[in-house]
């Protein structure tokens, strides 16, 4: 065989050898599409974060859906109530940045040791996975990942994952998304935040007709109580201030559509808050199944109740004392419209501290009445003394 023939045979042999190598590896779980050490885990997510319109998150306790709705992200299982956009963004960026360190087991019998088994495959395992799927509009799956346990004894930011369609699991590095067990953990639970120092007056009307009104003028150090009973005193000077803080830290424990809430016939209280710029927020409160629910509505109303106690103090030199001037209804309209668009579709279940401020009664602000004095005891007859019969007289 001449040299030319030998070269041809050698080239053919090498070609068949390489073809056999790739063929043998094609079914081994180490195909060319699989990531290698140091590569991004979810290559399909690169440059497509803005295409994600839905997240489906599953764990052993259940699943929940988070969807994009305009500029907001909402929780499907709560009738589309908004979730914190920061939670969504943080999750997407964390998934985008994950990089592989080392390939781990491809044996399904060993998945539960790393927490990368399919969700629900082994409900009794100590390490339970969370799966997240990222979808585009129309349901196209952009990426998916099963997130397992953190690496034992390793540095922070290393944990185990598996792509749902592949057998190989990986040790990866990056920010762990630490997905919640339920979608409620992502809800933006702030109902409203109106600082106490912008509130001008508050009026509470109870179901039995009792009213409690407090207000604060420019010269008042604290909120003052209207129609104070004669001879009664506040527990302390700032007792009424707590009512004005009723909207300052209002968060909810649960939320539901107003259209599906079966409200009791009579609210336990209706509370109106007037702000210095002319907005009024009305809060209706109901008691149902030992829980407190509230619905809120904003409107323009510059006629807040007011009461000034005593003469106005003289202002310091160069200082003016004047009431804040309400803004015009036209100026306030966009803010009120936006607030009602966000609040009016919902009824909120409130925690006990919010209930306390929204159902407070006048007597709860006042010092207890003094105990009535015991009448002086009359001098009792001494029945133990012997009776002088002769002193009784007689015929």
Topology:
Blueprint: H1 3-26, E1 52-59, E2 62-69, E3 72-75, E4 81-82, H2 85-97, E5 99-103, H3 111-114, E6 130-136, E7 141-150, E8 158-162, E9 169-173, E10 190-192, E11 199-206, E12 211-215, E13 224-225, H4 241-244, E14 250-251, E15 254-257, E16 269-275, E17 279-288, E18 291-300, H5 329-343, E19 346-350, H6 352-358
Q: What's the arrangement of strands in the largest beta sheet?
A: 4-3-2-1-6-7-8-9-5
Number of domains: 2
Q: What's the tally of helices?
A: 6
Structural class: alpha+beta
Low-confidence stretches: 1-32
Shape: elongated
N- to C-terminal separation?
A: 174 Å
Largest sheet: 9 strands, antiparallel
Mean pLDDT: 86
Instruction: Quote the beta fraction.
Output: 25-35%
Helix content: 10-25%
Question: Could you characterize what this model shows?
Answer:
By secondary structure, the chain is α+β, with helices and mostly antiparallel strands. It has two domains: 144 residues, no CATH class; 162 residues, no CATH class. Helices cover 17% and strands 28% of the residues. It contains six helices and 19 strands. A hairpin with a 7-residue loop joins β7 and β8. The longest helix is centred in the first third of the chain and has 24 residues. The radius of gyration is 36 Å and the shape is elongated. It starts with a helix and ends in a 37-residue tail after the last helix. The relative contact order is 0.10.
Task: Please summarize what this structure is.
The chain is α+β, with helices and mostly antiparallel strands.
Question: Descriptors for this entry?
Answer:
alpha+beta, 2 domains, nine-stranded antiparallel beta sheet
């Amino acid at each position: 065989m001449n040299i030319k023939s030998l070269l041809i045979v050698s080239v053919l042999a090498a070609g068949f050898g390489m073809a056999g190598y790739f063929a043998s590896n094609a079914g081994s779980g180490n195909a060319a599409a699989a990531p290698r050490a140091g590569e991004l885990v979810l290559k399909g997510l690169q440059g497509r974060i803005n295409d994600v319109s839905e997240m489906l998150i599953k764990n052993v306790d259940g699943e929940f859906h988070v969807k994009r709705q305009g500029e907001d992200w909402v929780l499907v299982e709560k009738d589309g109530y908004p979730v914190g956009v920061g939670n969504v963004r943080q999750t997407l960026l964390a998934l985008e940045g994950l990089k592989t360190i080392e390939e781990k087991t491809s044996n399904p019998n060993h998945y539960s040791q790393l927490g990368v088994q399919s969700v629900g495959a082994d409900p009794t395992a100590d390490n339970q996975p969370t799966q997240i799927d990222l979808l585009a509009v129309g349901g196209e799956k952009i990426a998916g990942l099963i997130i397992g346990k953190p690496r034992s004894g390793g540095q922070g930011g290393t944990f185990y994952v598996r792509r749902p369609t592949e057998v190989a699991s990986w040790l990866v590095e990056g920010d762990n998304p630490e997905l919640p067990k339920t979608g409620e953990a992502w809800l933006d639970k702030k109902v409203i935040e109106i600082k106490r120092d912008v509130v001008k007056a508050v009026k509470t009307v109870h179901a039995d007709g009792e009213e409690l009104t407090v207000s604060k003028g420019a010269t008042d150090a604290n909120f003052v109580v209207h129609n104070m009973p004669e001879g009664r005193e506040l527990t302390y000077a700032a007792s009424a201030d707590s009512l004005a803080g009723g909207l300052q830290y209002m968060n909810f424990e649960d939320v539901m559509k107003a259209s599906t809430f079966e409200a009791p016939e009579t609210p336990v209280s209706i509370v109106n808050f007037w702000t210095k710029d002319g907005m009024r927020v009305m809060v209706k409160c109901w008691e149902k199944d030992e829980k407190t629910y509230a619905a809120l509505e904003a409107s323009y109303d510059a006629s807040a109740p007011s009461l000034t106690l005593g003469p106005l103090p003289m202002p310091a030199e160069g200082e003016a004392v004047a009431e804040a001037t309400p803004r015009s209804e036209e100026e306030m309209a966009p803010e009120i419209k936006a607030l009602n668009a966000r609040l009016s579709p919902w009824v909120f279940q409130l925690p006990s501290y919010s209930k306390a401020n929204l159902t407070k009664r006048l007597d709860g602000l006042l010092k207890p009445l003094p105990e009535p004095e015991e009448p002086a005891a009359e001098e009792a007859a001494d029945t133990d003394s012997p009776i002088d019969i002769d002193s009784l007289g007689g015929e």
